Amino acid sequence: MTTLAIDGGTPVRTAPWPAWPPPASDAQRKLLAEVVDSGHWGATSGPLCERLAAEFAGRHGAKHGVVLTNGTLALFVALRAAGVRPGDEVVVPAYTFVACATAVLLLGAVPVVADVDPGHLHLTAGTVRPALTDRTRAVMPVHLAGSPAPLDELLALAAEHGLAVIEDSAQAHGASYRGRPVGSHGTAGTFSFQSSKAMTAGEGGLIVTNDDDLAARVWSACNVGRVRDGAWYHHAEVGWNLRMTELQAALLLPWLDRLDDEVAARDAFARRVAAGLAAADRPVAVVPQPAGTTADSRHLLMLRAAPGVDRDWVSRALEAEGVPVDAGYPPLGGLEPLRGLARALPAPGAEGAAATVFWLRQPQLMAGPDGADDVIAAAERVFGDDRAFPASR
Ligand SMILES: Cc1ncc(COP(=O)(O)O)c(C=O)c1O
């Protein structure tokens, strides 16, 4: 019998995982040095933020792109530009990052937390419908972990009720649904370039849209209410300085050239792990995708332990084997700071996920076939131990 690493045995994996973010490429270093030398460090004088916005939007099937400080404010600005006002309600998923709710609160609007599908963990028409009232103005599908939300049914429901759809694509650069990139299906799509994301400059955000007027409002909101090509001290709207810097754009622009390769590498990893776990017949599986997924960008690899498994012991044991995992989100509606500010519907789907889901991050997903085999081997050991199943002991 092998001694598990949690009991002092030798871990499955001792080699380091790839760093995330990866070391800066030659193209990034060159562009960054050019910006530093130019002295045009801000977007009001340099060209790169505009180029990034245009190229990223083009890559994501959208007519317009606007770069800004981060993904949280991207949600705030997009919702506001879509007409959400104080007192309005915005439906957000119960299994997601807290920013989905706090961006709504920034507007003085009310996040209404609707459950997710217990299988693929996304909002569906069925989970959103009970959350709708005559104050609902928008719905925010989240392309969780790089997996596109089931947009067909959500867009149809939104059209039926006259709602804006803001696609939170913070975790889904390069993902696509029914052959079309995420972010460009709804009213607007938002992205994050925070450190853990599939494209990162440490921080940053971007909004894409096909709506000319909305794009103008978004740009103005991020540029102290100015009008594009207008006078410097002409402020047509209320707005803020939410601009990205040219230094960030220099890190992000070259990334567009390798995004597809990195998505493919992570997807290959995910498929190998899924197949390996299925073949070993262990009570753990990759969280499935909704129908209509054409590219899952695999920002995270979400795994789900079967009922009866002690997910927290499994997480500790995997970590000891050299495979770090994260226990994921608590249900959004139960977060203490949101009490009295958000309206939460019952969320058995999100509660189930919070108790059973765990995930691997970019460093593992970028580790190639050997890394995938280490994950499979570690799972084989850990799930082979009785302590993984306290319910049956
Ligand atoms: C789903 C989701 N939405 C929004 C955000 C907020 O993005 P940022 O951290 O850039 O503000 C994040 C990540 O951080 C996220 O994962």
Explain what this protein looks like in three dimensions:
This protein has helices spanning 26-38, 48-59, 71-81, 99-106, 125-128, 151-161, 212-222, 246-252, 259-280, 311-320, 348-356, 362-365, 368-383; strands at 64-68, 89-93, 110-114, 136-139, 164-168, 176-177, 180-181, 188-192, 205-209, 284-286, 293-295, 301-305, 343-344, 357-360. It has 393 residues and is of the alpha/beta class. It has two domains: 5-12 and 259-392, Aspartate Aminotransferase, domain 1; 26-256, Type I PLP-dependent aspartate aminotransferase-like (Major domain) (Aspartate Aminotransferase, domain 2), CATH 3.40.640. Strands 1-9-8-5-4-2-3-13 form an eight-stranded mixed sheet, sandwiched between helices. β2, α4 (99-106) and β3 (110-114) form a beta-alpha-beta unit. The longest helix has 22 residues, at 259-280. Pyridoxal-5'-phosphate binds at residues 70-72, 96-97, 99-100, 142, 168, 170-171, 192, 194, 205.
